[in-house]
Design a protein that fits this description.
Shape: elongated
Distance between the termini: 93 Å
Oligomer: single chain
Low-confidence stretches: none
Radius of gyration: 27 Å
Number of strands: 5
Order of helices and strands: HHHEEEEEH
Helix content: 40-55%
Length: 149
């Protein structure tokens, strides 16, 4: 009367899985698979951006060291980006093979170039760097004391 249940009943209850427990187990497995896929995709994005960064080395080696307009580097956040300067960066597209060269401004984000090929993106970045250098030169010609301030 008083006491524990017989062991036979306890073991049969433990052996019959509930549908909810099975569903929770399956959801955990799926979440683990998704997170590993996300990590793999992020690593692939970083690898592709590092290849592009290396391809940009000859371009930035030509920029004089005293010109501090550009601050190139890869940010490793949720969305990895290769920054060219404070307002322009390259991110991977949704298909993870497309390079997107983006420019942020007060009126919003603008796509400067999109390509699956590194040389095309290098050409777009080269044109952007050239425009920025011309803007800098014009500003210095208009106000020679600009650098001193």
């Amino acid at each position: 009367m008083w006491g524990r249940k017989p062991k036979e009943t306890a073991t049969t209850e433990a052996q019959t899985p509930s549908p909810l427990k099975d569903a929770i187990h399956q959801a955990r497995v799926e979440a683990a698979e998704r997170s590993s896929v996300v990590v793999d995709l992020r690593d692939a994005d970083l690898a592709r951006l590092e290849l592009l960064n290396e391809a940009l080395n000859p371009l930035f080696s030509e920029v004089a060291p005293d010109i501090d307009l550009f601050d190139r580097g890869i940010s490793r956040g949720e969305t990895p980006r290769l920054w060219i300067d404070a307002v322009a960066h390259i991110a991977m597209g949704r298909d993870k093979r497309l390079y997107r060269f983006l420019h942020d401004s007060r009126i919003g984000r603008r796509v400067l170039a999109e390509s699956h090929e590194i040389p095309d993106v290098v050409q777009a970045v080269t044109a952007y760097v050239a425009r920025r250098l011309v803007e800098r030169q014009r500003a210095l010609e208009a106000d020679p004391d600009l650098l001193a301030r």
